[in-house]
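Apologies for my clumsy wording, but are you able to produce some protein sequence, whichever is easiest, and the tokens describing how it folds?
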Amino acid sequence: MQAVLDLVLPTGVPGLVIVLLIISSILTSALTASMGIGGGVLLLAIMALVMPPAAIIPVHGMVQFGSNANRALMTIRHVNWRVILWFLPGVIIGAWLASLFLVDLPLPLVQLCIAGFILLLCWGPAIPKVATGRAGTMIAATFTTFVSLFVGATGPLVAAFIKQQQEGERLSTVATFAAAMSLQHAPKAIVYGAAGFVFGEWLGLILLMIAAGALGTWAGLHLLKRISDQRFGLIFNLLLTLLALRLIWQAASSWW
């Protein structure tokens, strides 16, 4: 049994850490499924405490890809395919542009811009219909995918944009956001693999966390169905606001 575990789990990572990460995947997936947002950021914070720095972003990206794909499959009847149809070309263009430029974006400035957009989308006036139409969706997907490959902090911005389009309908918001983020996380495997990260060493843990996340997603979706659209909208906006304030704090801290 130990020999099998040694083959499928990363070497040098204590068993208690493996258990912590699997439990964290269950809980954070349940949080995102029920509240729409927040689980990915929380999981990233936990992983940053217990994992080697070089493995955090690529492993987190693949776990999030699996978690979002599971959530999209479980809620596939509620996905707004019109949005996804125009989100996909933007993802492809954004990933392609990122691979061409490979610019070193100033992280604090990006964090402040993302935080500002989130607060505007949550608490500002409704954005014009043209901005949430086909062209607006493709532009938003291009921009957020491009930035995500460098800073990895665009999930809350995508969530706020998707919420504006779904007009507060909770199941459609969660389902469409999950499908959009599945598409946005997918290019990270190619980018980090090309950069030399050996995914094979972490594949066992990634698959275990994805499977555990599916359990959390199932439980979270059952809770989501008991929440009204009005309450969901308020909680969703509050969580996004907290994430925006966290980005502002991170940006300010880096300048002190």
